[in-house]
Write a structure and sequence with these properties.
This protein is mainly beta and about 900 residues long. About 15% of the residues lie in helices and about 35% in strands.
């Protein structure tokens, strides 16, 4: 056909052919442009039905106008031929690019987002492609996706798996319903896009097999291998995304492409600490690349260490396991070699990593906990256990087993002295220290609340610690603590940046005698800050949590308080500023500490790092799940009829209010502002939601229709912080706490006027103490709340609205209070964070006067969030079930968290290309 002219198209060359048709490059002689012409194959030329379907599909495809869809110019019948004229794309198919190598994760996600954008346009016009595959995706020279073959692929691609000839598509990318010849809709394209992303990342399709019958069997009956098992350095969230995209039941699959795009963009943002960051960063180091062997074996010097797995390498699972086994056996041969013989300078030592779980030494009733710290000299790792026998432990890295330190029951958040001879920790409301060799634990000072991190100064003279979300200092020999940095203190403004100050770390003396780096913010969004305590100089370093200085010249940190990924920020001790962009070093990891020789120690993340709403019974057994997982889930509130749950949840670092239909799992996003929206509370009729937000500066109280429609109304806004607590069942009152500079946290009420047009504020409890987290009794005659008037948080009840005789409900610490719907029980959380927190039920009577009856301790669960006073759970109408959040992958069958040790960690990243 080359040289022929058909209609006004001059045929230039053949571009390709297949069973479905032939594609030719041609010149449009009228418009002077290059086009591509698609002709039906000779086998279907005389088929009128096929021809009619081609015309209908071409007309539909021509209606699509999207940058990621190849444009159709028209359909023609000339010289007995029927053909489509479309844009000519000068670029290779995606299939050719995949043949070269697996794509970098950032590039694969970007291409998947582009493909999804094109499919979204098609689906909105009622068009289903039915043959999405790498061969039908063309890439321009600028990397832009062009989806080809709309319509044509769905006409003649008949599978050998069926005798009826009704199954259309390419077997390796067919959804189960498509393979079985059942009705196909947009969800078949969603399945195919999942297959394409899987192939971009691994260079193989999810159901790889030699014969079509075997492919079909796998699609219908088997689960694909997780991509993280086939390739190192991939975020674990990719597995979750693909599992949903490739769900065999289309009702469990993504229902719309726009849902996929939200999660794909979330995965992209997960790879960068800020939305504006480049997509060219290297993938995080695989958390699966370390054999689990004991410390003494792992530190033997003679054994060579295999190079770190690149994020671009594929690691077959069987080979990876074999490599681990060989490494472990080789290490065992070297038992007994001295640690001192092993030690080299950080710059000379090879990259070496190992993992251990001290489960044998911390058997029940104690359990390994999430606090870990390596000593400055790199010889010891301190960690803690929780439970009735929880205490401080030390793993000497030249020994096989850890040892318990007596007299440290209830220890949390260990930290080391500069000479590595003492370990500090919090326990029983006190800051303490103990010798690394054991002995008497010495009391240093009282803590105002839970210990959230501490650090010894480089000269060993003072300790700075976080308690009550403020920073204090105390002499390292013990004494009276002094307030160092207030919770709301900041540079340039009395209110910003606001939030608690946690996990302070002294920088090395080269930065100055007294320079701290710490975390500032809330439980869901945090920023790193550095401050010179002598000069007052301070700098915001960007988003992140728990920063720890590494002698490689980096601040190693988590990406967020609940985000289980480790990043490294290049940092100068001279200027106290960042010197480059942060880069990922380990996915699904948390709690980093670094020794002076460059040894990095951290913990596995919990599950996927995301959280899921679940139902628990009164024994703490999980009875079901609700909705979808989020990055972080905060407080939740059941609607009055129990059909819906409003939840404060974070996605892409944006804290918003969502509403779930419990039975269907369908969700509505109530808020979407970049500011923080929290603490949803239902109106008695269930038609409105009140919530707290900082969208106009400090935290105020807003109101919106529960279906997400209508305008937001401001109910309370002052220069102070208002935090919403509850709404009375008669609809007349809202309870909230107000942070007054003179009296601290007080309880106030908003009273609705008769016509419902306005709310008037009135104080309820104003004392020198901190009252907060209040809840109405069902008959709104009493208010239960939390106060620190006894020296620690406890639960109290007072009559409402006039106040009066106060009844103490808890006597061993109490927070997060809620009422049962019949008013016969109060629930609260007992215990300090990390120290055996428990949900407690108390029988109560509220007849002529209020009285307290028997107490029952129900269960322990991380979703109770004991470090926070506001309840992060809710209770069903019958009082038999509780709704709260737990980490995805958590539970009795979840693997125990492990301690990961990486000597000279930066060697793996030394040659990386900066952004």
């Amino acid at each position: 056909m080359v040289g022929q002219t058909i209609a006004h198209y001059k045929i230039l060359e053949k571009l390709g052919s297949g069973g479905m048709g032939e594609v030719w490059k041609a010149e449009d002689t009228q418009l002077r442009r290059t086009v591509a012409l698609k002709f039906l194959s000779s086998a279907t030329v005389g088929d009128d039905e096929v021809k009619a379907r081609l015309i209908r599909e071409a007309q539909a495809s021509a209606s699509l106008d999207h940058p990621n869809i190849c444009q159709v110019f028209g359909i023609h019948e000339e010289q007995g031929e029927t053909f489509i004229a479309m844009a000519y794309i000068d670029g290779p198919p995606l299939a050719d690019k995949i043949k070269e190598r697996p794509l970098p994760v950032e590039e694969a996600l970007d291409l998947a987002i582009q493909i999804g954008g094109g499919l979204q346009e098609a689906h909105e016009k009622g068009i289903v492609h039915r043959d999405i595959k790498p061969q039908n995706i063309i890439l321009t020279a600028k990397g832009q996706v062009k989806i080809m073959d709309f319509g044509l692929a769905s006409l003649t691609g008949r599978s050998k798996l069926t005798k009826t000839g009704t199954t259309l598509g390419t077997p390796a990318y067919m959804a189960p319903e498509q393979l079985e010849g059942r009705q196909v809709d947009r969800r078949a394209d969603i399945w195919a896009l999942g297959c394409v992303l899987y192939e971009m990342l691994t260079q193989q399709t999810p159901f790889e097999a030699e014969y079509e019958q075997a492919i079909g069997y796998g699609i219908l009956n088997e689960d694909p291998e997780p991509v993280t098992a086939l390739r190192g350095g991939l975020p674990s969230r990719v597995d979750g995304f693909l599992a949903k995209a490739l769900a065999k039941d289309k009702e469990e699959r993504y229902q719309h492409v726009d849902e996929m795009l939200v999660d794909l963009r979330g995965l992209t943002k997960k790879l960068t600490p800020e939305k504006s960051a480049s997509l060219s960063r290297p993938a995080a180091a695989s958390s699966q690349s370390s054999p689990k062997v004991g410390p003494a074996q792992a530190l033997a010097p003679q054994q060579p260490t295999a190079p770190a797995v690149s994020s671009e390498e594929l690691v077959p699972k069987r080979k990876l396991r074999l490599a681990w086994a060989v490494a472990a056996v080789a290490a065992l041969v070297a038992l007994g070699v001295s640690l001192l013989y092993f030690r080299q300078t950080a710059t000379e030592a090879p990259l070496r990593r190992f993992t251990f779980t001290p489960s044998e030494a911390v058997a029940a009733p104690a359990t390994f906990h999430s606090n870990v710290a390596i000593s400055p000299n790199g010889k010891h790792i301190a960690f803690t256990t929780a439970g009735s026998e929880g205490k401080l432990w030390v793993q000497d890295l030249d020994q096989r087993r850890p040892r318990a330190i007596g007299g440290t029951e209830g220890a949390i958040n260990p930290f080391w002295s500069p000479e590595s001879d003492f370990i500090g920790f919090g326990a029983a409301g006190e800051l303490k220290k103990v010798s690394v060799q054991g002995g008497l634990a010495i009391r240093l000072c009282e803590l105002s609340s839970t210990l959230y991190g501490a650090s010894w100064s480089p000269d060993g003279e003072v300790i700075v610690f976080s308690s009550g979300l403020k920073l204090y200092e105390v002499p390292s020999r013990g004494g009276t603590s002094n307030l160092l940095i207030l919770r709301e203190e900041s540079e340039g403004s009395p209110r910003g940046p606001t939030g608690g100050k946690v996990f302070p770390r002294f920088l090395p003396s080269e930065a100055g005698a007294r320079v701290l780096v710490f975390t500032i913010g809330s439980s869901t969004a945090q920023t790193m800050m550095v401050q010179n305590l002598e000069t007052g100089q301070r700098e915001l370093l960007g988003p992140g949590a728990t920063p720890f200085y590494s002698p490689s010249g980096h601040l190693v940190h988590q990406t967020g308080p609940q985000a289980h990924d480790l990043w490294a920020l290049p940092f100068s001790l001279d200027t106290l500023t960042a010197t480059g962009d942060a880069f990922p070093i380990s996915e699904n990891s948390r709690g980093p500490t670094v020794a002076a020789d460059g040894t990095l120690v951290y913990l596995d993340g919990i599950g996927s790092g995301r959280q899921q709403l679940v139902w628990l019974d009164r024994s703490g057994e999980k009875t079901g799940e609700i909705g979808q997982a989020h990055e972080v889930i905060g407080s939740s509130a059941l609607s009055p009829d129990g059909r819906l749950v409003a939840v404060e949840a974070t996605e892409d670092s944006n804290e918003d209010v969502w509403v779930y239909d419990i039975a269907r799992g369908v969700r509505i996003r109530m808020t979407s502002a970049p500011e923080s929206d929290r603490r949803p509370v239902w109106s008695p009729a269930g038609d409105e939601l009140a919530f707290t937000s900082n969208r106009v500066g400090n935290r105020d109280i807003f109101l919106r229709q529960a279906d997400g429609t209508g305008e937001r109304k401001v109910l309370a806004a002052t220069p102070h912080t208002e935090l919403l607590c509850d709404w009375s069942r008669d609809g007349k009152y809202l309870l909230y706490s107000l942070n007054d500079p003179e009296t601290g946290n007080d309880l106030w009420r908003l009273e609705r006027n008769e016509d419902g047009s306005a709310w008037e504020p009135h104080p309820f409890l104003q004392t020198p103490f901190s009252e907060h987290s209040a809840k109405f009794s069902p008959d709104h005659r009493y208010v239960a709340y939390v106060s620190n008037e006894s020296g620690q948080d406890e639960v109290y009840v007072q009559p409402f609205p006039e106040g009066g005789r106060k009844v103490t409900v808890s006597n061993n610490g109490g927070k997060s209070v809620r009422w049962s719907q019949d008013g016969r029980e109060l629930f609260y959380v007992e215990g300090e964070a990390f120290a055996g927190e428990t949900l407690v039920a108390v029988s109560v009577s509220s007849g002529s006067s209020f009285s307290v009856g028997s107490t029952t301790r129900l269960f322990k669960h991380p979703g109770l969030r004991p470090g926070l006073s506001y309840p992060y759970y809710d209770v069903s109408a019958d009082g038999q079930r509780f709704i709260l959040a737990e980490p995805v992958g958590a539970g009795p069958d979840a693997p125990e968290p492990s301690i990961r040790v990486v000597q000279n960690w930066y060697e793996e990243f030394r040659g990386r290309k900066p952004n």
